[in-house]
Amino acid sequence: MNIKNFLFLFLFLFIVFNKTYSYDIEKLNYSPQGNIRYGSIGGCSFTFYFKVTDLNFDQNPISGDSISYAHQLYQNLSSKTIIYSLIPRGTGFPFGSNTAKVIDSNLNQTILEFPYTCLEPKTEDLIISLVGKIYPTEFIGNYQALIKVGGLNSTIGKAQYFFYGFTCQTYDCMLVENEEDSKSEYFKVNVTTSVSNVTQPFIISFQIGNSSTFHEIVLSNNLLPQNNDEITDYLLWPNDINNIKISGLNLGTAVTFVSNLLPFQSAYGSIINSVNFGNEKVSYLFPIYGDTSSTKYIYHLPANLYSYQGDSSLKFLSQDGSLLVNQGGIAFDFSYLSEIKLDGINNIDPTDYTSLGSTVFVGYNMSNSNYTFKTMNIVLYSYQVKTKSPFGFKSGQNSNYYYSVEILTPKSSGLDSPFLTIDKANPIEIVSETPINWTDSPIFQLIELEQLEGSLFILRIKFTSKNGFKYVISQDLDLEIDILLGGIECLVFGTIYNGTYEILIDNTFIKLDYLRTVDQTDQYLDFSTPYFYSDILPPFDISSFKPKNKIQHLKNIKFEIEEINVSNVSVANRVYFSFDKDEVPNNYPINFFTQKKSLLQNDIKYFPIVWNPTLNLFQSDFYVDANVYHGNLVYGISFGDYQIDHNSLPTQLNVISKNMDYYGPIFEKISLEFEENSFGWNFIIEDLYNGFEYGLITVRGSIDSSLYEFELRSSNDLILGDKFTGHYSIRINSSNPCKSQSYVITNVFLNDTMGRYSRFSLDEIPDEFDSFNPFINFLDEMSITSIESPECGTPEGGGDTTPPELISFTVSSGIIDVGSLNRTISFNFETRDSVSGIKYDQNPIVYILGADLKLLQCKSKLLHDSKYYCEIELPIAFGYPHGALLSIYGIVNNNGYFSGFSSFDLDSMGFQSSINISTYSIDNPIITSHKDINSNGGNLWIFGKGFNGVNSVTITYYNQNLALRSNYPIISKVYQSAILISNILPTNNSFTIKVSKSSSSILTSNIYTIKPWIALYDPTPPYLSPSSSSSSSTETINLPTNSPQQCKNNCGGSSKGICTPNGCICFTPYIGIDCSSTVIIIPQPKPNTTEPSISIDIPISGNNNNNNNNSSNELITLKSIINLVAIREITFDDSVYKTHRFEKWTLTEINEKTQQYITTIGDDINNQTIVNVTLQWFDKESNISFAQQIIKMNPSSIKYTIELSKYKFNSALNKLQLVMSAQLETNSNDDSICSANEFGDTSTGDDSNYIKIQIDEHSLYGRLLKRGIIDNRIVSISNSILDNEMNAIKTPTKSQSFIGIDIPHYSVSSIIDPDFSVLLDHSKSDGNNNICNSKSDSGLSSAQLAGIIIGSVGFATVIVVSIIYHNFRKKNQKAFMKNVNQKLKTMNEA
Fold first, then answer.
1. DSSP code per residue over 1108-1124
2. For all residues of the chain together, what is the average pLDDT?
3. How crowded is residue 1203: how many other Cβ atoms within 10 Å of its Cβ?
4. By the 8 A CB rule, do 984 and 969 touch?
5. Phi, psi of 1236 (to 5 degrees)
6. Model pLDDT, residue 55
7. DSSP states of 1044-1105
8. What's the gap between Cα 266 and its chain centre?
9. Residue 115 phi, psi dihedral angles, 5° rounding
10. pTM over the 0.85 mark
11. How far apart are CA 850 and CA 487, in angstroms?
C-alpha cells in the first residue's frame, strides 16, 4: 500500500470513528417562564429557546429527545440560521428534576441540555380559602368568587391549568385560569345556578398534580347569605303583553319591581316556559332607581323570544330566606311578541354589474318592494360598512326604487377572490387582477414595546412589504374578536413599503398575544409572542406589557374621603395603597377602575395609578358620578385585562346615594301637533335626578324616505320646565305642493347629564347592553311615533314620476394630502326638478368612499335656489393610497320621488367622481388626542403625528388669572407620535395647546382643546417628585419652602392622616398641624355693608364642667372677627414710614356668595391707590389656583381677595405691609377657661404659615401663604405677628392677634390671597403661652375643641390688586393704636 492510499484510509477511519458537527449552537438568554414551576396534569409546559448557525438546511439533524420537540421559529437563509423552541413532546415535561435535550440525529448525540424542575403540588400542602364574599353579577343566576391557594412556595410559578377537572357541587362553576407561570395565589371562579336554594354550601371539586383523585373543599357554608327580599310595585311594560309588536328592535317587554334591599344584595332567577325553547333563558336584570333603603329593578324578557310565536309563561324568582321563590306576583302567561319586519334587498342577483378595474358598479331594481328604513350592511371580503338611506338609493320611492353603488375593490392576494354582498342579496364574486408581488410576504425589521406611563405603551414596528403596509390587528382568541391597533396613520418614518410605525396601546384593553399584520393586497402574517423575527435582534417580548396579578402583595388601601355622598352631585376622591417592598416597581402598568355608568351600557371608567415619591405610596385620583347606587362603591384594580373586584379587597368605600338614577331620559308625555305652517310632536322629557342634557330624534318620510334629524338640548331648546321635567317640540314645515305621507320616528337617543342614555331604533339592532327605552311609557300605543302630513295641494303635473336632476357638481380639489393640516374638501352642487319642484327641507348628502368600505358623509346646506354646499375634513390617512369615490344621494322632489348619483353616474355626466389621495406627508405635526388630565395639572401626554423635532409648545388658559401668569410648559419627552409636557398649571377650566418645530420652515400643529376633570386638591402631587428634572427654560422662581415638621400626636391616627417627611398630611375632613381639627359647617355670615370685615357668631352647648358659674339656661356663644386694619409703608430698617387707614368703602354685591369692597388711600387726589377687596364664601370643598399653586378651600370658608394698584413709594427700598386682625372671644365666665395663640409653618405641602387663636374648647385658625403676584410675577412674601407692637388684647375670654403681610416693592400691581374657615378641634392646647383665669386648672381640659379656622392671608388666599398713587406722612403710632382698638370695641358691642 502506497503512502497516498494509507493517508486516505486513515482520514476515512478518523471521520467515521470521530463524528463531529460543523455548526454552532447556543442557548438563547430568553426564558420568561423560567425552569422551575408547579405543574398540572401531564407535567410542566416549559419552553426553551436556542439558535443554530451555519447549518446545512438540506441535511438538518436537529431534533428533541424522547420528551421534547424542537420547533423551528425563525429561519434566515443567508446566514444559515434557525431559531428553535424546545417544547414538550406530550402534554408536558414529566414531574421531577430532569433535563430536556437537543439531539443531533445524524450523530445520535446530545448537543444541548436544558435542566428543569417540575414540582408536583400535594393536596395536603394546599390551604384553599374564599377571599371576601361571593357576589351576584347583573346577569341573573351568575355570581363570582375569588379563592386563595396558599401553602405553596409563592416565588415559584404555577401551570396555567394548575387545577383541572374543576367543578362545584350543586352549582355550575368555571375557573378563570391565570397566566402561565403565574405566581399569584388567587383564582377567580364564575358560578351559575338555577337551583332554588342559593344558601347551600359552596363546595369545589378538583384534581391536582398527576393524581386522578378528586378533592373536595368547602369554601363557604352557603353560596349566599339568607335574605328576606320583599318585592313590591310590580309592573308590566306594557300592561297587556299578548300579541303586540315590540316597540323597536331588541327593545321589548319589561318588568319593573321594587326590592327592600340594596342593589345585588339578593339573588334572583327566572323561569320561562315556551314551545320553542327550553325552560331557561338568558336574561338581564338591572337596578335603575333607588335610595338608601330600596332598589327599583328592570327585567327584560330575553330578546330572542321576539322572533317566534307561541304561548309562553314566565315566573320571576327572588330570595325569601334561603330559597328563590316566586313572590310579588311576577308570574304571567304571554304570547311571543311579533318581530318588526325589515325589508331591504333580499335573495336576488344584481340588475346591473360592471367591473371597472379597481372598482365595481352594482345595481338592483327593487320594484314592488317596501323599504322600511332598514340598515343595509355592505360586505366586501372581510370588510363591512353599515349604511342607511339615502346612500345607494338612485331613484324611485320606498315602494319601487332602484339601488346602485360603486365600490372600490382591493387587489386580490391571489389566494381567493373577494365577494361583495349588499344586505341580503346574493353574493357577487369580484375577480380582479392578481398583483405581481402577491407572493412576497411582509417582513419585520423591528418590533418592540416601550412604556410611556402606567398602562400606556408604544408598539413600534418597522415593516417591509412590496405591496405596502395596511394595518395591524390584535386577535383575542378568547372573545373571538379582532381589534384594530393601527394603520397607515401611524406611519412615522419612511413609506408604506418600507417604514416605521408607532401605535399607542393600553394594556387594559388590548392583548398582544396574537398579532396579524396585513398588506395592501390583504396578505397577512400571523404570529404569537414571544416572536423571533431576527437572528440578531431580541424577540418581541410582551412580559412588561402583561403585569402579573399582585393582589397578594397589596396592602394599606386608604381613601382620602372614606364616605362620599353622591346624591345629585359627582364627587372626586383619591385612593392610596402600597405593595410589599420590592414586589412592584413604581411604574407598574396598572389602573384603578370604577363603574362609571350602568353595566347595562357596558362602560367602566379607568383612572391611572401613579407613584407618589413624597408619600411612598401609589395613588389614583378618581371621581364617582352623581346618583350611582347606594352602598359599597364598585371599584377595583386592573392588572392588564385581569381585574380584581372590590368584593375581594379589604377596604370598601361607602357611597350615600339618595337618588339612584341609571335609566336614561324617557318621554313622560307625547302629543301630535298641527299648526298653520308646520306639524310634529310635543314632548315632555323626564329625568328626575340626573336631568336631561342632549337628544337626537330622527324622522323619516314613509314614501320618499325624506330625512329629518332634530337635536334637542336642555340648555337651548327647553320651552317650559327644567332639565328634570321639560317641554320640547320638533316640527316639520308644511309645504305646498307636497306629497301626503306618514312621517315616522325611526331613531331616538336621549342622554342625561351623567351620560346615561336611552335608545330606540326601527332600523338596526342596538347593542347587547342597550335596552333602556325612551318610549317605555308608550309600549302599548306606539302609533304615537307616526304622524300624517296635512292635506296639501297636488304638484303641477301630478303624475310626475321623474326623479330630480343634478345639473352641476364641483369639488374644491382633486388632490388631497391626508397627512397635512389642511385636509378639508368642499362641494358645491345644484339640483333641478322642472315638474313638481325640489323639496327644499331635504339636504342631500355627498358620500366619500375609500378602500375597505370606509365611508364618510358630508351633509349639505341649502344656499339658495336649489344650490347646495358642504365641506368636510378628511381623517388622517383616509383613502391613502388608493383614493376615494364620490357620490351624492338624497335629492327629493315635491311629489315624493328621490334621486341619487353614484361615482359611476357622476363620471358619466362629466362631473368629478373621485379624489386623488396619493400623498401622505409625515412631517406635519398634528395633535389628535390626549391622556386625561385633572385639575391639579402637572404632566400631560398628547398624541398625534409628526412630532419628531418639536421644540416649542404654547398653552392658552381660558382662566383669566392664569392667563396673566407665565405658564412656561416644559417639553419633557418627544416621540414621533407622543409628547410629554410638564408644568401644566392647575385649572378647572379648558385650555388649548399647540406645538411647533423648525425645519426649513416653522411647522405648527392644529390648536387642540383639553378639558381637565375636577379632582381633589393634591397637597403633594406626584409630578413634584424630588427626583424630577429641574432643567427648564423657564425663569427660576425662588419661593420659600417649609422645613420638615414633626408629626405631632401621630397625625391623629391612621384614620385622620399620615406622617410624611414634611409632617402630617390630613385626610378630609381633618385639618391642622396634627390633623386634630375638623371643618364645622355653618351658615354663611351676613355680609358687612360698611367694610370688608367678617363676624361669625357660633352658639355652643353649655359647659359640663363642675366649675361652671354659668346658669344652665344661659346661651354661650363664640364670636370671631376678621378685619382689614391698615396698609403701612415700611422702610428698609423696618420702621413705619406711613400708615394708611381705611375710610369709606363702596360695596358691590357680585352674587349671593361674593361681595366686592373698594376704597382708596392717599392724600393727593391725583395719586390715589385703589384697594379692591373681594370676599367669597365657600359652602363646600373647592380647589382654587393662586400663583401656580392649588389651594384647597374648606367648607364654610371665607376668602379675601385683595388687589392693590400702583403705589407711589417714598423710596425704592421701601415695601408695603397689609395689617389684618383676627379676634376670638366668648361670653362664657367659666372659672377654668383659658386662651392661647400659635404661629408656625404648615406641613400640608402648601408652604404656608398658620395662626391659631384658641379659647378653651374653640379655636380660630388661619393659613398665610408665602407667595404673591407682584407685577404679574410670582414672588415670595413674608408674614409676621405684630401683637406686641399693636398691643393685642390677651385675656382668658378674648384673644386678639395682628398679622403683617409684607408686600415687596412693586411698580404696577400686587395681589395677595387669604382665606378663613371654621373647624372643630379634638384636643386642647398644651402650650406654654396659655392665659387662664386664676382659678383654672394647670392645663386645658381634654374635651373636644370646636375650632374656627378662618384664615389664610397668604392666610390661604384672596386677591387684592392695589394701584397705589400717593402716600401719607407718618402718623403717630399711639393715635393709630387707639383708633384700631376703638373700632374693635365698637364691633364687639355690635
1. --S-TTSPEEEEEEEEE
2. 82
3. 22
4. yes
5. -160, 155
6. 83
7. P---GGGGG-TTTEEEETTEEEEPTTEESTTS-EEEPP-PPPPPPSSSS-EEEEEEEPPP-S
8. 30
9. -70, 150
10. no
11. 14
